[in-house]
Amino acid sequence: MERKKSSVDALILAGASNSGQLSECSPVLNKALIDVGSKTLLEYVVDALKASLGIGRIVVVGPNKLIRERIGGDAIDIIVESGDSFIDNIIIGLDAFEGAQQILMVTSDIPLLTPAAVDDFLERCSQREAQVYYSVISKETVEKRYPGTKRTYVRLADGEFTGGNVALVSLDVIRSLKSVLKKVTQMRKKPWQLGTLLGARCMMKFLLGTLSIDDIERRVEKAFNFKGAAIITPYPEIGVDVDKPEDITFVKELLGG
Predict the structure, then answer these.
(1) By CB atoms within 10 Å of each CB, which of 17, 40, 127, 251 scores lowest?
(2) Domain boundaries, the chain
(3) Mean pLDDT, the chain, as a whole number?
(4) Which residues pair with 58 in a beta bridge?
(5) Which residues of 94-131 are buried (b: 16+ CB within 10 A; e: fewer)?
(6) pLDDT digit string, tens, across residues 35-80
(7) Residues with Cβ < 8 Å from 158, sequence gap 6 or more?
(8) Which of the 8 DSSP states describes residue 111?
């Protein structure tokens, strides 16, 4: 596939096994290959990235044989065999981007993702200078677009937010933060625990309800020696992932069956 001009390459993380609650909905061995309506979870994400103006090559980390058997490989530039953990898959995937400065990391379980959401996120990232850009969505934005959907939110001085499933990252920074990434991944669904990584002062401000996004960004830079930026996106599709059977029902209705 020819790389688009002025584009960033994308890494889709599709290595998770279908061993949790979603195994009740589908017998497939890999979560990314669960059918939701007319396509698999992975196909929805690949199609959104392919149609994005800002995305170049698409690399998928997952079970190579299963992906090729189920959806083929024509739409994907590179399929890299997945490892034993989420963090392993990130590190494995990075090796496919020799010479790149940054990449867009996307999980394979956000079937509502749209090209517009991807391009808007990249545009917002371009307006700030950082090494890691992480998507966040306000509770108001999610509930206005998708009333009734259940997400995990954290209350900050700026409002209530949920984390997105899209991040623009510097490859050098990500490679140097393997141990921190492991902790963050374990705590991702428990945002109150993330405060422990930021120190006592931030934790106290969080408990008092005065912790702001700016506070977190400054503390991250001081504690981990890289500049991070929380990108508030108006596209809730970036944060609506599929983890439970009721999520599949919800997304199917939105996608028309």
Answers:
(1) 127
(2) 8-254
(3) 89
(4) 10
(5) bebbeeeebbbbbbbbbbbbbbebbbbbbebbeeeebb
(6) 998 899 999 999 999 999 999 999 999 999 999 998 887 889 999 9
(7) 212, 213
(8) T
pLDDT score at 5: 53
What one-letter code names the amino acid at 46?
Answer: V
Using CA atoms, how far apart are residues 70 and 24, in angstroms rounded to an integer?
Answer: 19
Backbone angles phi, psi at 16, to 5 degrees: -70, 135
Interstrand relation of 55-62 and 102-107 (parallel, antiparallel or unpaired): unpaired
All residues at 6 or more sequence positions from 15 whose CB lies less than 8 Å from its CB, including other chains: 30, 32, 61, 62, 63, 82, 83, 86, 89
Q: How many whole angstroms separate alpha carbon 184 and alpha carbon 197?
A: 8
Decide: helix, strand or coil at residue 30: strand
CA distance 131 to 102: 8
Helix (H) or strand (E) holding 13: strand 8-13
> Which of 165, 179, 186, 135 has its CA nearest to residue 241?
165
Angle (CA) 83 85 91, round 5°: 65
Return the higher-pLDDT residue of 8 and 204.
Answer: 8
Task: Tell me how far CA of residue 103 lies from CA of 9, 40, 59, in angstroms.
Answer: 5, 23, 10
Task: Return the CATH number of the domain spanning residue range 8-254.
Answer: 3.90.550.10
The pLDDT score that the predictor gives to residue 76 is 93
How crowded is the C-beta side of 73, counted as CA atoms within 13 Å?
A: 15
User: What span, in angstroms and rounded, lies between the C-alpha atoms of 216 and 202?
Assistant: 8
